[in-house]
Fold each of these.
Amino acid sequence: MSSDRVAIITGAGRGLGSSIALSLAEENVAVVLAGRSVEQLAAVQAQIAEKGGAAIAVPTDVTSSASVEALFAACVDRYGRLDVLVNNAGIAGLKNLVDLDEDEWQRIFDTNVRGVFLCTRAAGRHYAEVGAGRVVNVASVFGLLGRAGYSAYGASKGAVINFTRAVAAEWAKFGAQINAVAPGYFATDINAELRANPELLAKVLRRVPARRMGDPEELANVVNYLALHAPDFLTGQIIAVDGGESSV
């Protein structure tokens, strides 16, 4: 089966990133899986191949400009084009501000903000030449809300949100679109420990009007829409997928 579109997904080895990659592959998109873990990327690649999809795995450090350049070169070398970038790679950290050291603050910003900047810049240079292309940034509801213990993470995701808006204004003139999703709590392997603790889970869900975590496929569906099906006139928007958490 030949693919008519090509997408790079960062942080594709686990969690929401792997769900997004699998969902895009089901839409006949050739996916380039980027992440740090060779083993995790290989597992997702195998899942896609089993279903007849097209995928390559490219171990990538999104905080390194050289690594990002190699990722985009590998994509174009293999498929000859790029249509979609999903900036999903991100890290979080729970620590009160007075206990937060500079290295931890910088570590979060390097991945969550510098990584988005480097990958988006690389995509934008390609899109400007061809006059088309899309980016979907995975921000967070914590970029819209204040949450104790997440000053660095929330600030980084807030930066992603306004970065998305600014770039949308720049890119509209050459026909490329960039939007973001702001996910709330989703049931993934990353929060398996939290979900296994009934008291802690109940505390978290009290803040969510839907009283549940999202299914990763629910977020993947929104990403797919923005990446593949949304009108070109839709750009610079932030869509919260959070069970109503940001509305109360």
Amino acid sequence: MKPWSQVEPTTLEQIEGVCLDIDETLSTRGKLTAEAFSALWGLKQAGIKVVPITGRPAGWCDLIARFWPVEAVVGENGAFSFFMSEGKRSRLTTPGAAPDPGPGIRRLGERIRQQFPNAQWASDQAYREYDLAIDFCEDVEPWSRAQVDALVECCEREGAHAKVSSIHVNAWFGDYDKYRGFMHLLDQFPGRGLPPAKNWLFIGDSPNDEPLFARFPISVGVANLSAFLDRLKTPPAFLTQAESGAGFVEMAQRLIRNKTE
């Protein structure tokens, strides 16, 4: 990885859109700072398209699509996309997303509770449609790394996909991930109004972002990704100096300056 400060101007000139994770990429210790939200608006005002790609639930994504300065949002690790079209919130469901994941998710939850009696679902679980999010540090006492790894193994034994974010383990059934969700959005977005995949940058902070680090030609990690580098087979091309939301601002400001100078 190279420091983001060393990115070449010719690389920046290619970028027409920014995809981003939310938790501890845009947010900082669970809060969306004024500087980070302003950076979203700065990207929009510079003519750069913005699409969050998040593990957060459908309930959150409805709000994000309606109220944030974004073109769309890909939610629940790629299961769907929400966007505004002619004043109405519209939806794309990613091929491979199970139409009724309820029975499988319930069985998986039972297995997890058998092995981890104190496991708690994420506080936003009620607003999810496709996955089960197990909280390991957001609203509970932090789990050890060994416990998180054992939880992932438990989910995978049951045939589920399991990805580690900065706060949750997200588990789901179906043939999709963050990258497939984003590519489906590009293919089906009304009027093909989004730039081609080669002109997007992705920025993230945790192992569940690896499908995007691996596929995006321009990928960035915020500095707190360093804690997870040994989990990644494919790290991003660049790393910011600052962590979390400040790292996102660092990335955005460099990109905005290049577009407006």
Amino acid sequence: MDGELLIQRNQPPGVPPLALTGERTLPDVPEENYWFRRHCAVYSWIARRVAGLRVIDMACGEGYGAELLATRAASVIGVEANPAAYEHARLRYRRANLRFERATIETFAAPTDAIVLSQTIEHLSDPQAVLARFAALVGPAGTVFVSTPNLLTLAAPGAVKSDNPWHLREYRPEEFAELCRRVFARVELYGVYHARKLALHEFALRLGWQQLHTRLHLTRAFYDRFVPTISTSDFRVARGSLEHALDFVAVLRP
């Protein structure tokens, strides 16, 4: 129902479910599955690149991303300032190589080889200072991974920002690249794109699927069934036209 507060379903015993406020994405909320899988695709892509390394997942939220990283990394620390999200993550995700700390990304420090900042830089009032701090934490041999949505595909055409109230600033490709290059000497930029059935869905929209399902009053019924079936493999991270990317993924080295 429109306006209904969505809560995580089927949590393990003793793990308090989180409510979907729009500030962070969550697993176990069928209506949110598109965004959750979109973010998981990036975490899975990064996980393959941090195998055997010490990793900090800054602003880790519910904890699912730190858990994904821990499937490959030597160790992962999930850092989260929000008390409810921290408590949920601490109780839900348990691995010998994974722990959670309640702290802010501006203050937490620990020896690390890589830092991940997923879908957070658009929330920050001083993103350059945060990136500079991360560069110092990883040192000359480390890597920082940063993902953020593409203003050009998230917001309405010509808008300076989407209607997400939690975002302070959203970036065009050249703006995000410039921000990263102010701090890091080596910057690699990738995009997140639809794949598999989401690519087919995009093609169907170009052929007029939106007008058809609207006219036939099938919109709610179709998407109530389609969205929960989306998987991580329905997204891909690749080099390509960043203007058309859903999100940017930066691989940053001092």
